[in-house]
Amino acid sequence: xxTQELVASAQHDNLxxxxxxANTMAAGIGKLAELNAQFTRATLKEALEFAxxxxxxxxxxxxxxxxxxxxxxxxxxxxxxxxxxxxxxxHTELLRVAREAGEARMHRIQVYLEETTKHAPAGSExxxxxxxxxxxAANTLYQTLxxxxxxxxxxAQTNFEAAISTASTNARRAMA
Length: 176
Fold this sequence. Notes:
Blueprint: H1 3-56, H2 61-67, H3 69-118, H4 125-175
């Protein structure tokens, strides 16, 4: 493959990656917008029902007000879980796109290196080996960082779930 073809291929692949990121982000934002719309509709519906009951039975307003906390807490927890799920799936998809792009980039670099070493002058084998070693080390580093990032996301998600569970338990105790 010629250098110009490799550059053109790299530019094309970079555009594909950029559009892949944009599509993934747009899909995630769309899901979050839909979740927000659903949450808002449900909240407004419940607020209307509460206001209607309060208007019909003003003497029972304090009792109605006391029963409002648990459903709201449950809805907020459900919203938080769904929101976290959307963000997590979007993040996972972005990592997949990035990983595929990185693998494609490494393949292009290896092809370019192979093409270049075919025409390398005699005695440059040590320099070529050092360059390959550096590329392999960088690739290993990228993979390690990607794995560490995925692990950090899983830990954060677990901690978030634990915090929601604790808040839910505390809210139920406070309501009782």
